[in-house]
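Long-time lurker, first post. I've been practising inverse folding by hand and with some scripts of my own, and I keep getting stuck on stretches where the structure tokens seem ambiguous. Below is the full token string for one chain I'm working on. Before anyone asks, I'm not after the true native sequence, just a reasonable design that respects the backbone. If someone could post their per-position residues I'd love to compare against what I wrote down in my notebook.
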């Protein structure tokens, strides 16, 4: 049996050495548990890391285990890269895990052994997250983010973020997406709805030991828009109007600050104009990225529903 680890990465060079030990430990424990040798491989999707992640993977993984690296030219985010890995994995079992090893080995070993024995996919769900040091602002943003998304994403298994062990049959719908225009899908929204009687395993997440997460304010905004824009209850043109209006407002604010600096310089503190313009320019760049994302998603109002319906037809 061929088992492949699917691993999205972003600036994980500090984790690569430990990640190989982690995977080899899982493989050894699984083979002891099932009583036989298995074929192991890894498939990475790198979201345009700015460190030496890709080079580290090639140096550490390639000599030790069959490895393929897919390098994106920009950071497309977790869900795009995960769905891309689903589409391109041909293994009998695909094990989607994070590169930072926050999932303990025991549920992964148990999940792989269960999937081999029962031919059923296994969802790995987080029971609780470790307490991390966060600024009060980021904590407020995170709480607002998740409470808002609950209004749009429907029934989602608590603690499920896409991680799990998936059989070839359950991934068959994703494979056929290669035959026509492939659209990325929200893994945690789609997968549970197309699986037939999956097994669920719970785990307590480890604290991230190395590397850094890029899921800051911009990440929350992009992830939120991606989910909200796919919701039936939201008018896509409304999202675009709000973003475009905010962009215009920030541009007008920049013009006003610049004009005030020229006409009434005595009312402007030293350095205020430069700092304000830099902040407004960065805000506008983020808004532009979100606006382009909204444009790309426009017209796909039922993308989630159509992918699920297509997957169910393939299973009948």
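-- Answer (accepted) --
I ran through it position by position. Result:
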């Amino acid at each position: 049996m061929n088992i492949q680890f699917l691993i999205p990465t972003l600036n994980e060079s500090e984790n690569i050495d430990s990640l190989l030990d982690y995977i080899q430990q899982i493989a050894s424990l699984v083979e002891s548990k099932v009583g036989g040798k298995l074929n192991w491989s890894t498939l990475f999707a790198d979201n345009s890391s700015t460190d030496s992640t890709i080079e580290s993977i090639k140096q550490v993984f390639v000599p030790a285990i069959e490895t393929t690296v897919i390098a994106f030219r920009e950071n497309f985010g977790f869900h795009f890269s995960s769905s891309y890995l689903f589409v391109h994995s041909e293994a009998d079992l695909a094990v989607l895990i994070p590169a930072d090893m926050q999932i303990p080995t025991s549920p992964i070993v148990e999940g792989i052994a269960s999937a081999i024995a029962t031919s059923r996919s296994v969802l790995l769900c987080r029971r609780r997250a470790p307490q991390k040091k966060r600024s009060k602002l980021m904590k407020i943003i995170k709480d607002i983010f998740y409470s808002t998304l609950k209004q749009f994403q429907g029934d989602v298994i608590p603690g499920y973020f896409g991680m799990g062990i998936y059989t070839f049959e359950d991934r068959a719908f994703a494979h056929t997406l290669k035959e026509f225009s492939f659209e990325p899908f929200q893994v945690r929204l789609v997968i549970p709805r197309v699986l037939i009687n999956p097994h669920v395993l719970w785990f307590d997440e480890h604290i991230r030991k190395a590397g850094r997460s890029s899921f800051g304010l911009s990440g929350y905004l992009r992830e939120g828009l991606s989910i909200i824009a796919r919701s039936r209850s939201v008018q896509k043109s409304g999202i675009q109007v709000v973003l475009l209006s905010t962009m215009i407002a920030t541009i007008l604010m920049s013009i006003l600050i610049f004009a005030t600096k020229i006409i009434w310089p005595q009312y402007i503190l030293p350095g205020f104009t430069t700092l304000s313009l830099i902040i407004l320019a960065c805000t506008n760049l983020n808004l532009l990225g979100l606006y382009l994302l909204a444009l790309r998603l426009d017209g796909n109002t039922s993308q989630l529903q159509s992918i699920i319906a297509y997957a169910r037809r393939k299973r009948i």
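A couple of notes from the structure itself: Residues 2-139+155-213+304-315 form a domain with the Spore Coat Polysaccharide Biosynthesis Protein SpsA; Chain A fold (CATH 3.90.550). The chain is about 50% helix and 15% strand. Happy to go over any region you disagree with.
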